[in-house]
Amino acid sequence: MGNIIEINDLHFRYEPTGEEEAPPEVLKGIDLSIKEGEFVAVLGHNGSGKSTLAKHLNAILLPTTGSVIVDGIDTADEEKLFELRQRAGMVFQNPDNQIVSSIVEEDVAFALENLGVPYEEMRRRVDESLKAVKMYKYRLHSPAQLSGGQKQRVAIAGIIAMQPKCIILDEPTAMLDPSGRKEVMATIKRMNREQGITVVLITHYMDEAAQSDRVVVMDSGKIVMDDKPEKVFSQVDLMKKLRLDVPQVTELAWELKKAGYDISPEIISEDECVEAIIRLMSEE
Amino acid sequence: MLRDITIGQYFPGNSIIHRLDPRFKIVITVLYIVMLFAGGTYIALAMGAVYTVIAIALSRIKPKMFVKSIKPIMPFLVITAVINLLLISSGEVLWQWKFLKITSGGINTSVFMIIRIVLLIAGTSLLTYTTSPITLTDAIERLLSPLKKLKFPVHELAMMMSIALRFIPTLIEETDKIMSAQKARGAEIDTGSFMTRARNLVSILVPLFISSFRRADELATAMECRCYNGGAGRTRLRQLKSSVRDYIALFVTIAFLAGAIILSKIFA
Fold first, then answer.
1. CA distances from A69 to A10, A25, A57, A66 (A)
2. Which residue of A has its CA nearest to B231?
3. How far B65 CA sits from the closest chain A CA (Å)?
């Protein structure tokens, strides 16, 4: 399968305001390609440029130099702006600030209304999207009656109604409680698996990144690691130097290995960890 | 405490009045107001009263709610009545004290005005009681759409109204949070003299405004990401359909209006 996102030598700085000196570069030369259908997590501590990078993927920000190509469309091409935004949908952190309508199903329809989709088609796509995020029975509710996780699922439904090839989620679970986070992560994974939608998940939760196909780690405007989650997390020292955590189980395995036990450092899920420890104990 | 505030006071229901097309309901309400003002006789008011009572009965909303809707305008009613009572000097003089006098004409006009205003409030309340604010906004947008030709920003106004409605609960919740936060730091909001409380209100309004601007900015970005491009070429999920029912309601209203005007002319 081809690449859906191609980023070449992307540099970005905000426009200088007034007579100040030019502000520092936020992104300092990013090269990244993402394959169709991939689930990529982008990690980095605050100020690493991960959100800025996300905003380049559907032309909220445009590169200072370099280029971003999404599904064959250059994000700098103003004429294809709406086509681009339809193919690469974006979900933000605060669910309250991205829901436009006072009725769930109308909010999901918002993008389709803007695109001028005819009524029958719109009705069908709204219902399908709401069913896909398991919010169909709430379709006539007001967003104010929903929990954070439910609102975020409504926001995701509003994006998948556009039938995008790619969804970019900018810390979608940062404001949710643990059960809301689980709901949203399950929804994201299902979109990726069942509908083949490419997912770019910006997050600072390691356990979420561990569920992806590929982890990109950013630090001060550059990509410093780009590999499978188990490979990235097994480099515990480097992650700590970047002020990032690793999943608890990975850290446990790492500590055990340091203490002289024969255990793989590439453990990222609880099940793997349990198995490895049982094996260790039976060997003793 | 703030959470209990309702705006527009919509009472969900499934009565025949609830199910009327909101566009017709607005037009009918306008005709109803015309009926109250065009007749100018007690006969016209009596017909208005009959019409209102029937409509309220059909809406299956408790009559108590309509009494409630009149309460806030009581001071206004009293002032109007007193001014009419004292300033109109037609007819027989019934009571006089220095330059103040009450005449039969004054009493007549005062009573007439009170009945007219009470009917006006009760009838228009019926519109907001049986139509959700969002449907009402939608209907206004469609009724005003001919004004688009005159470059009047109909869609923009409706969008602003519906976003305002969407954010009322969110901002109320936020105000609650800010109030608690400021109280925790010792701000006197519920206690102290009127001036202290007024001054302390600033400590709630400033954070509320700042966060609203941030919300507005984020919402605008989110709307752009969903291809929002103004009103041109938009389709709608919510379809308004008029049926025979709506035309019958309109016809009945027109009949009442005509009746009120004709009867007023005959008996005037």
1. 11, 21, 8, 10
2. A114
3. 24
The stretch B57-75 carries a mean pLDDT of: 88
Question: Rounded to a whole number, what is the distance in Å from the CA of B197 to chain A's nearest CA?
Answer: 30
How many domains, in total, are found in chain B?
1
Task: Please tell me which of A203-207, A214-218, B237-241 the model is most confident about, judged by mean pLDDT.
Answer: A214-218
The number of distinct structural domains making up chain A is 1
Mean pLDDT on A68-83: 92
Report pLDDT for A137: 94
- Is residue B189 in some structural domain? no
Query: Given an 8 Å threshold on Cβ–Cβ distance, is B226 in contact with A58?
Result: no
Q: What is the pLDDT, as a whole number, of residue A234?
A: 86
Asked if residue B59 is part of any domain, the answer here is yes
| Contact assignment for B239 to A119 by CB distance below 8 Å | yes
- Provide the shortest C-alpha distance from residue B200 to chain A (in Å): 28
Instruction: Determine the structural domain holding residue A102 and report its residue range.
Output: 3-246
Residue of B233 and A216 predicted with greater confidence? A216
Chain-chain contact of A100 with B166 (C-beta, under 8 angstroms): yes
CA distance A3 to A68: 12
Task: Give the CATH number, domain containing residue A214.
Answer: 3.40.50.300
B79-120 pLDDT, tens digit each: 999 888 888 878 778 878 877 788 888 888 899 999 999 999
In percent, how much of chain A has pLDDT > 90? Answer: 65
In a domain, A202, yes or no: yes
Phi, psi of A223 (to 5 degrees): -85, 125
Q: Is A89 in contact with B165 (Cβ distance < 8 A)?
A: no
B134 to A103: CB separation less than 8 angstroms, yes or no: yes
Kindly state whether residue B205 falls inside one of the protein's structural domains.
no
Classify residue B82: in a domain, yes or no: yes
Q: A68: Cβ–Cβ under 8 A, 6 or more apart, which residues?
A: A5, A6, A7, A8, A10, A56, A57, A74, A75, A76
Q: What is the mean pLDDT of chain B?
A: 87
Residue B246 belongs to what domain range?
2-165+239-266
Q: Does A98 touch chain B (CB under 8 A)?
A: yes
Task: Report which residue type is found at A231.
Answer: K
How far away is chain B from the Cα of A234, in angstroms, using its nearest Cα?
A: 36
Do the Cβ atoms of A116 and B233 come within 8 Å? yes
Backbone conformation region of residue B9, classed left if phi is above 0, alpha if psi is from -120 to 50, else beta: left
- Whether residue A252 is contained in a domain is answered as no
B125: nearest Cα among B29, B216, B242, B267 = B29
Closest CA to B159 of B173, B169, B144: B144
